[in-house]
Amino acid sequence: MATDPEDRDSRWPRRLYRDGSDPDPRFTLANERTFLAWIRTALALMAGGVGIEALNAATGQASPLRTALAVLLLLGGVLCSATAFARWMATERALRRGRPLPAPRLAPVIGYGLGAIGIAACVLLFVSGF
Amino acid sequence: MERPSGPWDPGLQIERTTLAWLRTALTFVVGLLVLLRLIAHESTLAAAVCGALTLPFGAAISWLAWRRHLRIERGLRAETPLPGGALPAAAAALSVLAGCSGLIYVLFT
User: Fold this and answer.
1) Does B82 touch chain A (CB under 8 A)?
2) Deepest in the core among A11, A63, A90, B95, taking most CB within 10 A?
3) What is the pLDDT of residue A1?
4) Residue A50: which of B35, B79, B83 has the nearest Cβ?
């Protein structure tokens, strides 16, 4: 049965579904896939962090640089997953209201941040054997 | 289970979304296995306990994603609204938790 979106919407978060009207389902599904891609990015960042920490475990001597890099990647992963849902909600709200989509503010941070980490890791690799 | 007839969606949006869910669950499980392998270095028992506590989440996400798939597939033909944001919120929370446990592992071993 088709529910009346005005008063009988049981979907969570209610606050979101009280706004506007349901967009084309394809847009909602695309938003969900984008959200999932962010979550996978977060998981990949975390895997990178844990992987670097594994080097500490494998070599037997913990290098503070490696630990710092691992913590940085893990924090990036946590940031990514913590903001992913808020972004999903903001996008869904924009779709429901027929407004422009929110700007991907975290994307440049992650992009340039990973670039910087990559360069730093390369330099470390050549200078100190990491 | 009877499949509703006729393509609702020639772009296979529902299928692609479900696959994205399954990829995410798979990423989660693989990451978890790597972490468990590292924990096993310290203590096999701890790794076993962590695995028993966390691996079911991977299975749960896949199962819930499949249920969501069926619900969307049927719902779109019956013109009911799509499911809400509870499962994405749970996945995000799980991912944050995973990151925090990674941080704890890095900072305390």
Assistant:
1) yes
2) B95
3) 44
4) B35
